[in-house]
Specification:
Helix content: 10-25%
Largest sheet: 8 strands, antiparallel
Number of helices: 5
Mean pLDDT: 81
Radius of gyration: 21 Å
CATH superfamily: S-adenosylmethionine decarboxylase
Number of strands: 10
Distance between the termini: 46 Å
CATH class: Alpha Beta
Length: 270
Amino acid sequence: MRGYKKLKLHGFNNLTKTLSFNIYDICYTQTPEERQMYIEYIDEQYNSERLTKILQDVTGMIGAHVLNVAKQDYDPQGASVTFLVAEEDVSEDALDPSCNRGILVNMPQHVVGHLDKSHLTVHTYPEYHPDNGISTFRVDIDVSTCGQISPLKALNYLIDSFDSDIITIDYRVRGFTRDSNGQKLFIDHSINSIQNYIAKRTLNKYQLIDVNVYQDNIFHTKMRLKDFELNNYLFNIVKDDLTPKQQRDIITKLKKEMTEIYYGRNIGKN
């Protein structure tokens, strides 16, 4: 992996590396019935079973081993999945009896997961504006690891796993480890931007802004899709079904929603 070099350490690598995503998909739904249909569609597309598969893939990419999986679909909408993972495989006799290694059979209706030094979580939040027809789907993902495994290895896979209009990514390194001479190391790889690890094809598709705090090993990147084709944002209709004025009004609403999410503040009146 780029930016990494083999370090001689004193003991275990205690650095914690955390990659956090907020992923947004934005859509226009013309009627209350279509808004409900959109929510149901998203809920089905990104149910806990599919999210579990995505996190299983991530676990393999970063070279971790699954200790425990907890998942839940919510009523009326949304889902959550939590993975507890280890850098090395844990033998059966050393595994806590509460752990299931990701084998989900005869699961109770509600599951509480516990987190340890390395974990993966995903939560979904479908919602809609009550008046202007805008529906938004948000996915929150956290991949937190310690030791040699790095969540950055799964960065592009996670971006590609969702239809994303806006993405905010945070990466931070916490704690310290020691080299063989006892010197503290507060980071074990070189990085000056999350963009260093994003595929070029993705960089070409998005407008990106960085806000980094280098002295604290905190990196933040915001991404907004460059191209805007109205048909990609309409649910159950196409733009030819709309008058030119309706198209302009919907585009204004959609772009306002995207701008507010991208910059994290309200603009003008709703």
